[in-house]
């Protein structure tokens, strides 16, 4: 079975919203019976489609070499965060989504992903934007670094809930967008990556850290220390 046909069916299911077999059939010019057969061949029962999580369908689409940017257009910003979370989880990261802390020094982080083997965490901002201006991205990057400062100061409390965070020696801020064209950096600490290159970034993260000359932020969750850097370093 053609991977292209499978991708088109999955994409149409997400686009239609309601799982309207007739509408999908008419749009793709494939019989309803054939669509049901194709879905069953990849482990999906059409008759149970409403039980499937939208994100799981999006990940199934990726399995067949789908375009993450194209599928992300059919997800809202909450789904976009969940989509990125599951991609990191599939690579073995410990992930917390929607990490929040109350004032004083309150903060909110979309995703905190930790690689305990490399003793490194990534504080991730998910931007489901159609377009992103450089000025705004820089503001987001500065805010993300500030949230890391606050995260470390609250680390004593956070590690009681997520004990693996204390394994991190470094943090790297990452902004994941919908329509960037390449993986690059802002300042010398923040990686900006488009969703369609996210898997490449994860699989080759050390390469990109060296290529972009990223300076990871040193932390110690045990002593609550953060490498001191000033605004001029940004």
Summarize the SSE layout with pairings.
Elements (H helix, E strand, L loop, with lengths): L2 H14 L4 H8 L3 H10 L12 H10 L4 H5 L4 H14 L3 E8 L5 E9 L4 E8 L6 H20 L1 H7 L8 E8 L6 E3 L3 E5 L3 H6 L1 H7 L5 E4 L4 E2 L8
Parallel strand pairs: 3-4, 4-6
Antiparallel strand pairs: 1-2, 2-3, 4-7, 5-6, 7-8
Helix pairs in contact: 1-2, 1-4, 4-6
How many β-strand stretches?
Answer: 8
- The helix/strand order is HHHHHHEEEHHEEEHHEE
Count of distinct structural domains: 2
Structural class: alpha+beta
Descriptive overview:
The chain has 234 residues and is an alpha+beta fold. The chain has two domains: 3-66; 77-233, 3-Layer(aba) Sandwich (Trna Endonuclease, Chain: A, domain 1), CATH 3.40.1350. 43% of the residues lie in helices and 20% in strands. It has ten helices and eight strands. It has helices at 3-16, 21-28, 32-41, 54-63, 68-72, 77-90, 134-153, 155-161, 198-203, 205-211; strands at residues 94-101, 107-115, 120-127, 170-177, 184-186, 190-194, 217-220, 225-226. It is elongated, with a radius of gyration of 20 Å. The N and C termini lie far apart (51 Å). The relative contact order is 0.11. Residues 227-234 have low confidence and may be disordered.
The gist of it:
By secondary structure, this protein is of the alpha+beta class. The protein has ten helices and eight strands.
Write out key terms for the chains shown:
single chain, 234 residues, alpha+beta, Trna Endonuclease, Chain: A, domain 1, eight-stranded mixed beta sheet
């Amino acid at each position: 079975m053609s991977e292209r046909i499978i991708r088109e069916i999955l994409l149409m299911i997400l686009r239609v919203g309601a799982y309207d077999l007739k509408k999908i059939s008419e749009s793709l010019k494939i019989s309803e019976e054939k669509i049901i057969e194709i879905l069953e061949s990849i482990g999906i029962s059409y008759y149970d489609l409403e039980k499937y999580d939208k994100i799981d369908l999006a990940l199934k689409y990726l399995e067949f070499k789908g375009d993450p940017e194209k599928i992300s257009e059919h997800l809202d910003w909450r789904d976009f965060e969940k989509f990125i979370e599951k991609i990191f989880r599939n690579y073995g990261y410990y992930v917390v989504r929607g990490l929040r802390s109350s004032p004083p020094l309150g903060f909110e982080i979309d995703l905190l992903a930790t690689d305990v083997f490399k003793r490194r965490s990534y504080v991730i901002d998910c931007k489901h934007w159609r377009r992103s201006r450089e000025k705004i991205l820089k503001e987001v990057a500065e805010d993300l670094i500030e949230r890391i400062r606050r995260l470390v100061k609250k680390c004593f409390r956070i590690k009681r809930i997520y004990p693996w965070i204390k394994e991190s020696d470094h943090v790297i801020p990452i902004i994941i967008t919908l329509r960037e064209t390449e993986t690059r950096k802002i300042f010398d600490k923040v990686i900006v990556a488009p969703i369609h290159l996210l898997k490449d970034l994860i699989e080759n993260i050390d390469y990109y850290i060296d290529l972009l000359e990223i300076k990871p932020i040193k932390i110690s969750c045990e002593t609550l220390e953060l490498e001191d850097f000033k605004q001029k370093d940004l």
